[in-house]
Design brief:
Distance between the termini: 125 Å
Number of helices: 14
Structural class: mainly alpha
Largest sheet: none
Shape: globular
Number of domains: 3
Strand content: under 5%
Order of helices and strands: HHHHHHHHHHHHHH
């Protein structure tokens, strides 16, 4: 009996060791990991798929801390880029911290910036614009627009367009032109001075404005009318939107504590209320502003107050 035990015991031990050895399904002590899905091949994605799956979520996450997502939809995002040309795309150079008050949001070499770059490269390049007509518009396109595009487009997407820039000048009168004054920091401009008076950029702008035909007598904005009829509304400090006003919201988070004549003047185009950002925001006809005066639930004088603002821009005294 003892002999049989000695003969069987090595056989049992061998079987047990084999069951725990390298020939089993999982080696002893091996870490079992959860299977993962297939890796997405970004090269095979369409431009819209690339934006939707990778760029849009990154923008939403990185931008909402300071402001609304500047590209909430694919169609909106395409208006802020130049296909096949990231360096000429507002979204791309703003993400790198260029022309962006919030500074850099993604570092060079980051996955987010690389995805943004790759998406832009997937988009079709725009067709070349038709040759501009001769005259001041051609001069603007060739000598002024490239500078505006580089220095201003991050905050003002259309400022390098002739139809937009022309609203901000008085033909033949550089010293009375908002665009010329703002570029030097001589008129209200959140970005401050962008060019010095002796810079090539400002000289080119001055020459273009001088080449534009005169727009007739300049509209002079009256300070007394502003102080009496417009300032009280702009500086209404009620923050619950029951009455029309501005400073109640704008004074928060380190903003201005009042809107004086000079700062308000920098937000209007004298003689043209409909093209003036201040009037557009108050009337709700512009974009990028969630509140309009008509939203004031208890204010029965909204229309009258808008009329005061409009008349002041038109030159009322």
């Amino acid at each position: 009996m003892r002999k049989i035990f000695y003969l069987i015991t090595p056989f049992i031990i061998t079987v047990l060791l084999t069951g725990c050895g390298a020939y089993s399904l999982f080696q002893r002590g091996e870490k079992v990991t959860k299977p993962t899905g297939p890796t997405v091949n970004k090269e095979t994605l369409t431009a819209e798929q690339m934006f939707t799956q990778f760029v849009a979520p990154a923008l939403e996450k990185s931008c909402k801390g300071c402001h609304a997502n500047p590209a909430p939809t694919y169609e909106a995002a395409k208006t802020k880029i130049t296909g096949k040309n990231p360096d000429e795309s507002a979204l791309y150079f703003m993400a790198k911290g260029e022309s962006h008050p919030g500074g850099k949001i993604w570092a060079e070499g980051s996955t987010q910036l690389s995805d943004l770059h790759d998406w832009i490269m997937k988009e079709e390049a725009p067709l070349p614009p038709p040759p501009p007509p001769p005259g001041p518009e051609e001069q603007f396109v060739n000598t002024v627009a490239p500078h505006l595009k580089k220095s201003c487009k991050g905050c003002h997407p259309n400022r390098d367009k002739y139809s937009d820039a022309k609203n901000w000048i008085s033909g033949g009168k550089p010293e009375e032109s908002h665009l010329y004054l703002k570029a030097q920091g001589l008129e209200g401009h959140a970005g401050g001075a962008i060019w010095t008076v002796d810079s090539e950029q400002l000289k080119a702008m001055r020459e273009w404005i001088l080449a534009e035909p005169s727009t007739g007598p300049s509209v002079v904005l009256d300070k007394a009318y502003f102080d009496t009829n417009v300032s009280p509304v702009l500086n209404n400090n009620i923050m619950d939107n029951d009455f029309a006003g501005c400073i109640g919201c704008h004074s928060r988070n380190g903003g201005p504590t009042s809107f004086d004549f000079e700062s308000a003047k920098g937000m209007v185009i004298a003689g043209n209320p409909d093209a003036s950002p201040l009037y557009q925001k108050a009337a709700g006809t512009g974009s990028g502003h969630s509140y309009k005066w008509a939203d004031s639930t208890l204010d029965s004088q909204v229309e009258k107050k808008l009329e005061f603002l409009k008349n002041w821009i038109l030159g009322a005294k």
